[in-house]
Amino acid sequence: MHICTKCKKYKADCYFPKTNNLFSICFECKYKLEKTEVLKIIAIVSEQTIRSKKAGLKATFTFEQWCFAKKHFGHVCCYCGGIPLELCQDHFIPVIKGGKYIKNNIVPACEFCNQSKHHEDFFTWYPRQRFYNKEREAKILKYLKKNVNNNNPYV
After folding, report:
1. Which domain holds residue 40?
2. What is the pLDDT of residues 119-138, one digit of tens each?
């Protein structure tokens, strides 16, 4: 018997996923958390799609592409490398400057970096940051180029 750290109920070992022989969250709580996360991301994608279309911009970014982007950057902020509770979808080229809601323009960022960058050009904003890192910059640009399917002047 173990206690679930989420629901605080004692349950048999078979009710817990085994990860390195450690028990923490039961299957039921794990499922609820994953379902909540998926629904939240779907809502964000829907919101951003509407925002882009209102601005007359292309919007084809999907839930699957967001999952891929987060995985590519190791589920950390692509700019500072921080591990936030939640990653934001940052438009590499801001919407106000014609940035589309497509896979080669969306990167995972922490809330601080997303708000700090705001409408600034990446190449002006990023080198001024105390967490500036040439390797992260190269990884971001490589990711954007890899996903390019049109002529993006920023990558």
Report:
1. 21-146
2. 999 999 999 999 999 999 99
